[in-house]
Amino acid sequence: MKDLINSYTYSRQLVKQRISELSALRSSLVKRGESARAKALDLDRRISLLYEEHGELQAVIAYLSSYRRGEGIGKT
Q1: What CA–CA distance (Å, rounded) separates 26 from 12?
Q2: CA–CA distance, 23 with 42 (Å, rounded to integer)
Q3: Cα torsion 1, 56, 62, 6: sign
Q4: Which of 52, 59, 74 is nearest to 5 (CA)?
Q5: How far apart are CA 10 and CA 16, in angstroms?
Q6: So what's the pLDDT on residue 70?
Q7: Greater pLDDT, 30 or 75
Q8: Taking the mean position of all CA atoms in its chain, how far away is CA 9?
Q9: Where in 1-76 does DSSP place strands (E)?
Q10: pTM
């Protein structure tokens, strides 16, 4: 179970990294006056989807962590 949680945690970190990369790209394009290019790359939608995925990964991690804590109940 610990490996599964670690795997989801690593995936969540990768998603956060990608959000940062795409957000920086979007900001850079807008700052240079290339809003049309940012729109063509569909950055807002991609960033939004990544935020959604991040939330889902966080929920799975929380569920697995709470399930894991419950495994110890009743054991002596």
Answers
A1: 21
A2: 12
A3: positive
A4: 59
A5: 10
A6: 63
A7: 30
A8: 9
A9: none
A10: 0.83
